[in-house]
Prior knowledge:
mainly alpha
Amino acid sequence: MPDDGISTTFADALNSSLRTPLDGIELPPEAYLPLLDEPRTPDGAFSLKPGLYAATVRSYCLHTGTHSPTEGDGYRPAPLRGSKSGVIKTILYGSEKHPEIKQSSVQMLLWAILSRTKAQDYPPEVMAAAQTLLTSDQMVSLMV
């Protein structure tokens, strides 16, 4: 059976409701605090006080071969599992720390890894993103 790199399924998702008490309520923009200005713990998690927060963030598709974005917000928090989960996590966290790398380059890097493309075959822009975001050991692991 081929290794897909990411094996997380809905069965891995945390058992939480997709709806919140605020669904359908529209609040003025000034009701929200800027999430990205809040303090963080050493591992990067936010340390929040009670309140409403808003942020503009990047998102990435981890399903190689997806035709295009689909409708709806069917997302649930789940641990990232699979043989490439460590590399994928490094890229996702690193992307936040390197906003100079275009979102499209990070997306192409993720898809290249998940489609088992060897690093030496990456286009130059994808290779540059990989070299910035990954450790040398991770880069070597993507060449075999």
